[in-house]
Design brief:
With 447 residues, the chain is mainly α. The protein has three domains: 1-48, no CATH class; 51-310, no CATH class; 312-446, no CATH class. Helices cover 79% and strands 0% of the residues.
Length: 447
């Protein structure tokens, strides 16, 4: 219901809330008053969870950082440098390619990857007349795929934990890191998404709804502001990147893989805002009053995004209580041919991820299911795990209720539903390629 409402009404908040209420209505045995009570308890419980509160605060503080970058003149100076002085950006392709490259090289945390790719790319895309929907597609199609391929981050930590559990249960033997690295080789969706995105950017390919938003989505050219030195934009972004590594290291007590993603991005935003105060106010670029005014205005603009994230977390909790993922998995667990196992696991993981809006939740559901299935059918276990990772990323990539989708829309200043509709054809192309690769590799492995 949530997905159908989102695509029909274009109002994500109402859609997510409708899905939450329907789910709770089922859980409360169709009692109206019990559903209302459960809804209130659910949102109170969500806001009481530290990681959720920090993630919501991160979304709001992003608005403050973006507004300060704009008002400082740093963005105008950056655009002038890239387009006039260095001439590195002189076309729509080069404007998008900057964001694509950033999305590839910053792999430590998918939210930060999307944010930085969007922050750097947005003014360049505005100048070159590139729709924000296309920028959102590039941000979304690099952040999660790269994070799931280069697993020196929270993604790797989660997957290592899930694989270690399967080893402890005696289902598979060996080193969990070796299993993870072997399964990542079979992450066909992430690989195909990165290749397809590169081709789309390089050749300027517009298909489906992306053709229609070309004129309508192109935002006004960057406002004429007094230019500031390029470091007024670059320096805060460098601090942002360095801070993510630092706080992952600190929260993980010396191990980046064990660091807290929600805490790291929250503390990163606070650190970046503090650095910007020193850079802009203490050096006389703007007054304290102007700094606070810009921070408040930017935060207020993104309050709606934080609400959407909260509702996305809520529907995720409801689908867990309904055992949506486990039910879908049970439908496909019987009568499977070994030669089709990986392809079916990929499709199943995609459906679960699309329905629940979470790739990490899909990993947690499907790894404990896929590994015993592969062992029981004497199939390639690493290929099965790769299918879970690919399907989790693919479904999450397509889902309008995914936090990754919402944050990518935030980063590019694009409507969430517009982003989903324009991105879907490209994601489906990558998904079909991945599906065919799983069929081929599974067939070769079983022949």
């Amino acid at each position: 219901m949530a997905i159908a409402l989102a695509l029909y009404s274009r109002n994500v908040l109402i859609s997510l809330f409708g899905g939450v209420i329907v789910g709770l209505f089922i859980l409360q045995d169709f009692s109206f008053f019990a559903t209302l009570d459960a809804a209130l308890s659910l949102f109170i419980a969500l806001l009481s969870e530290t990681w959720i509160a920090k993630t919501l605060a991160f979304a709001i503080l992003v608005g403050s950082v973006m507004e300060l970058l704009q008002r400082s003149g740093g963005i105008a100076g950056f655009v002038e440098y890239m387009t006039q002085k260095s001439k590195l950006v002189s076309s729509a392709r080069s404007a998008l390619m900057v964001s694509y490259i950033i999305g590839i090289i910053i792999f430590i945390e998918s939210s930060i990857t999307s944010l930085i790719a969007g922050a750097v790319g947005r003014p360049l895309c505005d100048r070159e007349g590139v729709p924000h929907a296309k920028l959102a597609y590039v941000c979304d199609s690099t952040s999660a795929p790269v994070s799931s391929l280069i697993v020196l981050n929270g993604w790797g930590a989660l997957l290592l934990g899930l694989i270690t559990t399967q080893i402890d249960l005696g289902l598979i033997h060996g080193d969990s890191l070796e299993w993870l690295l072997e399964s990542v080789v079979y992450n066909f969706y992430a690989i195909s998404a990165l290749v397809v995105t590169f081709l789309v950017v390089w050749f300027g390919i517009d298909i489906g709804p992306m053709k229609q938003v070309k004129a309508a989505s192109t935002h006004t050219k960057v406002q004429t502001l007094k230019h500031a030195p390029i470091h007024y934009m670059i320096a805060p972004i460098v601090v942002m990147i360095a801070s993510v590594f630092l706080f992952l290291y600190l929260t993980g007590e010396g191990n980046i893989l064990k660091g807290s993603g929600s805490s790291s991005i929250f503390y990163t935003m606070l650190t970046t805002l503090g650095f910007m105060y020193v850079l802009y106010v203490l050096r006389g670029k703007m007054s304290t009053k102007s700094y606070l005014s810009a921070s408040f205005y930017g935060a207020k603009k993104l309050f709606g995004i934080a609400l959407i994230l909260l509702f996305a977390f809520a529907i995720g909790k409801v689908t867990v209580e309904l055992h949506t993922g486990l039910y879908l998995a049970s439908l496909a667990s019987d009568n499977l041919s070994p030669s089709l196992l990986a392809a079916v696991i990929f499709l199943l993981s995609s459906v679960i991820s699309f329905s629940t809006g979470t790739s990490w939740g899909t990993f947690s559901i499907m790894i404990p299911i896929a590994v015993p299935m592969a062992v029981g059918l004497d199939a390639n276990v690493a290929l099965a795990m790769g299918a879970v990772i690919s399907g989790g990323v693919f479904g999450d990539h397509c889902s309008p209720i995914s936090d990754t989708t919402i944050i990518s829309s935030l980063a590019a200043d694009c409507d969430v539903v517009e982003h989903v509709k324009t991105q879907l054809p490209y994601a489906l192309i990558s998904g079909v390629i991945a599906f065919l690769l799983f069929v081929v590799f599974n067939f070769l492995g079983s022949s």
